[in-house]
Amino acid sequence: MDELDYKALEQIPIPEGLEERLSAKIDEWEQEELKAQRRRSLPRTLRYIAAAACVALVIGVGFHLLGIENNEMMAEQDTYQDPVKAQQEAERALILLAVNLNKGMGHLEKAKVLSDKAEKNMYEQLNVLNSYETDNH
User: Fold this and answer.
1) pTM over 0.90
2) Helical (H) or strand (E) element with 4
3) What is the pLDDT of residues 19-72, one digit of tens each?
């Protein structure tokens, strides 16, 4: 009985170019799936990189400020006995904090500019790649 089925199948005419069209359609589906995977993974990767950079920046600034604070605490003590001197020391500490905060913000701005440039470049490259793939299909 299996022989009859195979013989019957062999008798069915196959349209001309069917194999090429099926192959081209399968390739097109594979390319679309690859593009979709790239689009899904790219933003997730950028989010992880941005989060890691923020954490590293906060930790670095924190350690820097703790190191400065510890050095100052060891150098000067008992400033509260004289109110004028206490006020001067408090003002000096606030100015130091403001200066270091401004430095940190400057570094953050530089990092943001670099990140924006890298993101722009990456999207340009992806657009070039997408246009290249579109032109080839």
Assistant:
1) no
2) helix 2-11
3) 888 899 999 999 988 888 777 766 777 778 888 888 999 998 888 888 877 666
